[in-house]
Amino acid sequence: MREKVARDRITVRLANVPQCLVGIEAGMATHYVARELSALGHDVKQVPPAYAKPVPARPQERLQRCPRDRGSCSAAVHSLRAVINQIRSFLLEHGIAIRQGLRFLRQQLPAILAKRSDVLSPV
Questions:
Q1: Helix axis angle, 102-115 relative to 69-93, nearest 10°?
Q2: How far are the Cα atoms of 31, 42, 90, 114 from residue 110, in angstroms, in the given order?
Q3: What values do phi and psi take at 27, rounded to 5?
Q4: What is the C-alpha separation between 17 and 14, in angstroms, rounded?
Q5: For the CA atoms of the chain, what is the radius of gyration?
Q6: pLDDT tens across the length of the chain (123 residues)
Q7: Are 110 and 87 in contact (CB under 8 A)?
Q8: Contact 45, 23 (CB under 8 A)
């Protein structure tokens, strides 16, 4: 099948189709769509936008596997930890030390922002 289907209609469109290989252009929210189609039993491959041309699929093309939900969540947690560490290091450069962990940052940050206008700019 070669047809354009809107993102919110693709699972409805492919719900009754026998299990098959589905190629979708990688982009915003395609991980979600890929997981939804995988749950229906389809083999989903994401094609980088540079390779998503209206030509037949070739075996030598580079395809991306869709990440599992657990994998994308662990990537988000990793990014969150990196942001927490950036905030802590910024505060430490201004003489304000906070213990490691989200709990300590969450407890102390409101008080620091309220009291330490002498060290931290409003920006």
A1: 40
A2: 35, 48, 15, 6
A3: 180, -160
A4: 5
A5: 22
A6: 777 887 778 888 888 889 999 888 887 778 888 888 999 999 988 888 887 665 555 556 666 566 666 666 777 778 888 899 998 888 887 778 888 888 999 999 888 888 866 666 666
A7: no
A8: yes
**Rounded distance between C-alpha atoms, residue 75 and residue 31, angstroms:** 13
CA distance 25 to 31: 10
CA–CA separation, 109 and 74 (whole Å): 25
Concatenated DSSP letters of 18-87: PS-EEEEE--TTHHHHHHHHHHTT-EEEEEPGGG--SS---TTS--EEPPPHHHHHHHHHHHHHHHHHHH
Tokens 């409101």 correspond to: 110
Pairing state between β 64-65 and 43-47 = antiparallel
- The residues spanned by each domain of the chain are 7-67, 70-115
Structure tokens, 76 = 């988000």
